[in-house]
Design a protein that fits this description.
By secondary structure, this protein is of the alpha+beta class. 44% of the residues lie in helices and 23% in strands.
Length: 167
């Protein structure tokens, strides 16, 4: 099933990630869109599309957003994730207001980059636990880094039947 069909026709909630940057080849501002969603027990992040713009205001971002995401079911959009400049926050507010007016829904707002917020929360939880999880994971990485024989032995011991989870 095509990505846009999955996100438009199914009951799939998603997060829309966007970033705008200078495309050195075209000498235009490029706005890239990615989607993150849950499917078959895993979180998937996929490239969705890119749009080119010139000098852009938040209102221009809204027009670009509407064109780029016309095939998505906006009512299923949980959050906009972005890199945080003020024009992006105004854009976020405009999209959230429009979604609230049209659909009676609001976006989840846990900051400009949900991944950083969740990572920070996890980091503080690890520290508060006092279990030295970070040291354990670093040591585990070093144990298996550049050692295919150790990885093979480990997989035999744990009877690894899921090759996608191979170290």
């Amino acid at each position: 099933m095509l990505l846009s069909e999955r996100l438009k026709n199914n009951d799939t909630d998603f997060v829309l990630l966007f970033n705008e940057s200078m495309n050195n080849m075209t000498q235009n501002k490029q706005m890239d869109f990615h989607v993150r969603f849950w499917h078959s027990g895993e979180v998937h992040t996929r490239y969705y599309t890119s749009k080119f713009m010139g000098h852009a205001t938040a209102e221009d971002f809204v027009n670009t957003f509407e064109t780029a995401t016309a095939n998505l079911n906006h009512i299923r959009m949980l959050q906009l994730t972005m890199d945080g400049p003020n024009v992006n926050w105004k854009f976020h507010d405009l999209i959230d207001s429009q979604l609230n007016k049209d659909k009676g829904a609001s976006l989840l707002n846990i900051g400009s980059c949900g991944l950083h917020i969740v990572h920070g929360g996890f980091k503080h939880g690890v520290i508060a636990s006092g279990w030295s999880v970070d040291e354990f994971l670093k040591n585990l990485h070093l144990l298996f880094k550049d050692t295919p024989a150790r990885r093979e032995d480990y997989e035999k011991v744990v009877n690894n039947s899921h090759p996608q989870y191979t170290l």
